[in-house]
Amino acid sequence: MHPSLIPTGQMLLQAGLIDERQLQSALSDQRKRGGRLGEALVRLGLLTEEALLAEVACRCGVPFIEIGDRAVDRSLSGLLSERIARTRKIVPVGRAGGRDRCVLVIATSEPRRLLESDELAALTGTTVRLVLARAWDVERALERMFGESRPKAVPMPP
Questions:
Q1: Which residues pair with 131 in a beta bridge?
Q2: 47 with 91: CB under 8 angstroms?
Q3: Are 90 and 120 spatial neighbours (Cβ–Cβ below 8 Å)?
Q4: 55 near 42, Cβ under 8 Å?
Q5: How far is the CA of 49 from the CAs of 35, 56, 66, 102, in angstroms?
Q6: Residues 36-55: tens digit of each pLDDT
Q7: Residue 19: what pLDDT?
Q8: Which of 17, 73, 140, 157 has the least C-beta neighbours within 10 A?
Q9: How far apart are CA 49 and CA 47, in angstroms?
């Protein structure tokens, strides 16, 4: 089984990041409020988003990065449409490799996106390497790359 397909709760128990009582609390919260188990663990303060993503990244064999206030390379925005980047919550953060083999590095905060590298490679016309980052980091990088997203104006009734 691919490491990203191991249930999150089981993975975190095996890693010793949570115990059974914490898992049950998070599952209860998840049933009441919805969302993913990892979100419930973070919401309840039982785990930091960084710890969660670092463990998932390790299990999936991808890096966990902190984007922070790092400048974004706006030239990369042409490789991925703003709509796709914002909808999928992914942001191109750099290039790796030499002249002959350019690899586009794309950050996501959603581990399920790690299974989409082939699709993203087809969309961008490059080889893609996915990395995990905090949701806040991805959002801020998207804002720096494309500008702040604005809600669509709702027409006023006559």
A1: 107
A2: no
A3: yes
A4: no
A5: 14, 11, 12, 30
A6: 899 999 999 999 989 999 99
A7: 96
A8: 157
A9: 7
Q: How many CB atoms lie within 10 A of CB 16?
A: 8
Q: Which class for 152: exposed (0-12), middle (13-18), buried (19 or more C-beta within 10 A)?
A: exposed
The pLDDT of residue 111 is 82
Cα–Cα nearest to 118, from 133, 134, 101, 106: 106
**Inter-residue contact 10 to 23 (CB < 8 Å):** no
Which single residue is written with the structure tokens 């706006």?
A: 74
Burial class (CB in 10 A: 0-12, 13-18, 19+), 126: buried
Specify which residues 129 forms β-bridges with. 105
Segment-wise mean pLDDT, segments of 10 residues, the chain, 158 residues = 70 94 96 92 94 90 90 83 91 78 87 85 89 93 84 50
User: 92 Cβ partners below 8 Å, 6+ apart?
Assistant: 72, 73, 76, 77, 79, 80, 85, 104, 105, 106, 107, 145
